[in-house]
Amino acid sequence: MIADAATPGAPVSAGAPGAVAGSSAGPFTTDPEGRAEVEGGSVALDELTVVVLAGGLDLEREVSLRSGRRVFDALRLVGMHPREADADAALLATLAAEPPDAVFIALHGQAGESGAVRTVLDLTGTPYVGSTAAACRVAWDKPNAKAAIRAAGLRTPDWVALSHATFRELGAAAVLGRIVTRFGVPLMVKPAQGGSALGAIPVRDPDELPAAMVSCLSYGDTVLIEPYVDGIEVAVSVIDLGDGLRALPAVEIVAANGVFDYAARYTAGMTTYHTPARLPTETAARLAEVAVRAHTVLGLRDLSRTDAIVTPDGAVEFLEVNVAPGMTETSLLPMAVEAAGLDLGQVCGTLLARAAQRG
């Protein structure tokens, strides 16, 4: 649910507020006849055989199932006849028995974002919506993604990423003391790999850091620690429907408890969203440019969501990117699609049609 929703905005395109420099994307409109434009013509969506892949055995299984159901229902509303599949031992047999034209990946966490399942789909020759396995491996690892973003000249908070073994062998107290000396407080502690803010904890006092680190390590072997950046938390979705990359209207996030953690993300009423974000035109344009640039620098494809902080002086600080954005009733990409005046089923159907054409 979008609280305090503003008038629906248009997708970011050349010449519009928030335009991406160099973009030639024109306005995208939904097709009432249920067709998707692809290179060389158009495709009838109801003629495509598609699978929505959701679930898996990751910690984010329940969220993934909710995302998959939302995509499934949206596709049916535009006349498509999707099938559902889980990322389990029966998946390969299912795909072999009835090979789909394309798969929509609604998996989250390691299953959907590390590139592993996409590698298996590549082995079977099954086209899918989203980034390649190689690009996912870079984006999934937050330190590597931040390093690529910084090398491209974009801003991201400074950071250190250290493994459990490093803390154990060198002495956690000594290492954490050095981190506090370097960065001060407050800090943000999060798993180096992972999604849905699982294990992400703000630290406002040095005495809280050891416990935060221990909690974080329960979600992965490596901890990323960075200075906590004050400002407006935003998410910008980027899609490519065949007419160039475009940033959709930014979603501004106001969590009731001040932290956009797992509960705040997936519990209705715990977070207020403003779409488009309440930002000056120039800042919104800069934010859109950062999202498209991050998508490009990391070699992503079809869709992504960049999470960032807009500081009080208007600077944009990249936090991380998601290659399999949530599609639940409280997820950010569907909010942005709606704010852009687009239909979620038509957008997903077009992405599937383009994936099928690639295949």
Keywords:
single chain, 359 residues, alpha+beta, D-amino Acid Aminotransferase, Chain A, domain 1, Dna Ligase, domain 1, 2 domains, 6-stranded antiparallel sheet, 4-stranded antiparallel sheet, 36% helix, globular, disordered N terminus
Give the arrangement of secondary structure elements.
Elements: E1 35-38, E2 41-44, E3 50-54, H1 61-77, E4 83-86, H2 91-97, E5 102-105, H3 109-113, H4 116-124, H5 133-140, H6 142-151, E6 160-163, H7 164-170, H8 172-183, E7 187-191, E8 201-203, H9 209-217, E9 222-227, E10 232-240, E11 245-247, E12 251-255, H10 262-266, E13 271-274, H11 281-297, E14 303-310, E15 316-322, H12 332-339, H13 344-358
Parallel strand pairs: 3-4, 3-5
Antiparallel strand pairs: 1-2, 6-9, 7-8, 7-9, 10-11, 10-12, 10-14, 12-13, 14-15
What does this protein look like?
There is one protein chain. It is built from 13 helices and 15 strands. The protein is of the alpha+beta class and 359 residues long. It has two domains: 35-143 and 230-358, D-amino Acid Aminotransferase, Chain A, domain 1 (2-Layer Sandwich); 158-227, 2-Layer Sandwich (Dna Ligase, domain 1). Strands 10, 11, 12, 13, 14 and 15 form a six-stranded antiparallel β-sheet that branches. A four-stranded antiparallel β-sheet has the order 6-9-7-8. It is globular and about 60 Å long.
